[in-house]
Amino acid sequence: MKNSIYTIVPSYNAEHTIRKVVSGLLDCGLPMQIIVVDDGSSDETFNVCRQFDIRILRHERNQGKGAALRTGFRHALNDGAELLFTLDADGQHNPRDLLQLYDELNRQNLDIVIGSRMQNTKPMPFHRILSNLITSRLLSWRTGQCIEDSQSGLRLIRASVLRNITLKATKFELESELLIKADLQNFRIGTVGVHTIYQVNGTESRSYVDVMDVIRFISLYLKSLTWNRANRN
Q: Could you tell me the domains of the chain?
């Protein structure tokens, strides 16, 4: 495996979890570059990350998860990345699961692999299960591909996908925008089961989807109905 694999970690006020996340990535067994994008944190996230030999990018103010991902994507692509993982900073994902996504991408010759937590929903709060099922069904219908866990932040993406689409969202809905636009460019999306983690340091992860995130998803989804396969924007 070439060292052209990058992992983008969008982070906001993650001082209590980011150390474990980065340490896990460094120990996961994949040769890769790690880019943490500190999205205007007001805590010690940036200083914790400085203790590691990784790249840290910083937004002066909070712009949203989508904006943080776009910043990370841009820098990785400029560096010549061929494969890009995304991993949330809240500790909801086991970094060792990256190996499963990598193997599945090559085994099925996929362009995007989503780490699905839906094969073991017992640790998940009911409202998260419900929202995930609804959005995943809608995106599956929209793309004609099986999207099992649309809200998962654990993904592996070929650089060719990101070079052939234009992402505009700045919040959580960017992850849905990515899937729809990738499908419109005939990229193949697959899924592999991963660990489901909702207890971090003895407490439930703070990751959540609020009312505005739901509204943004609905707006994006309705707008996407006007897109066609010639539209990369």
A: 5-224 (3.90.550.10)
